[in-house]
Write a structure and sequence with these properties.
By secondary structure, the chain is α+β, with helices and mostly antiparallel strands. The chain has 5 helices and 10 strands. The protein has a 10-stranded antiparallel beta sheet. The longest helix is centred in the last third of the chain and has 12 residues, at 170-181.
């Protein structure tokens, strides 16, 4: 009898680029539709797809927050028929500077770049901005909003409070365009 291995199943999902539903602890009735870009014992990195089958960003979450991963659901099956094959290429381009799929890897990959990322911490909806620096305990983050290029705040965010880091989600694209328009 073959022994089940969750790790092997996840790697098969990654290698076959299978669209899945991922459910999280904070609200089990809500889920993300995504391709799993990378997974390890500590983190899961998703190429998220919105309800219209469009690219919705690359997001990394702690694996401990995942409660279920569903494959072959009716909803995902119908959505998969409309998803563009170019989503993987777009996602890989967004994370080309990420060497390790961990929070530290994402932070290092986007540190001192012009890329606007979203960092969610302490159960908030996320803050958009640029990663300036970090050490083993804190990330230095310049926060911006959609309305203008003026920095809202410089935030010092404890690494152990981070719930998610996202890149190229729709609202961060708006913030990024605003900063570019103002040569900021």
């Amino acid at each position: 009898m073959k022994k089940f291995s969750f790790k092997d199943e996840l790697q098969k999902i990654v290698s076959t680029k299978q669209l899945v539903q991922v459910h999280f602890q904070d609200d089990p009735s809500q889920f993300k539709v995504a391709y799993i870009l990378a997974v390890n014992n500590d983190f899961i990195t998703l190429i998220e797809v919105d309800s219209s089958a469009a690219f919705d960003g690359v997001c990394i979450y702690p694996m401990e927050d995942v409660t279920a991963i569903k494959v072959d659901s009716l909803y995902v099956g119908e959505l998969a028929k409309r998803v563009s094959d170019s989503i993987h290429a777009m996602a890989l381009q967004e994370v080309k500077n990420v060497k390790k799929f961990t929070f530290e890897g994402f932070i290092s990959g986007f540190e001192n770049s012009k890329t606007v990322v979203e960092i969610s911490y302490e159960k908030d909806d996320g803050r958009a901005g640029r990663i300036i620096d970090h050490d083993n305990e804190v990330v230095v983050f310049d926060e911006y909003r959609e309305e203008g290029a003026n920095r809202l705040a410089r935030a010092y965010i404890k690494l152990d409070s981070i719930l998610r880091i996202s890149v190229d989600v729709p609202w961060t694209r708006t913030v990024s365009r605003s900063l570019i328009d103002k040569n900021f």
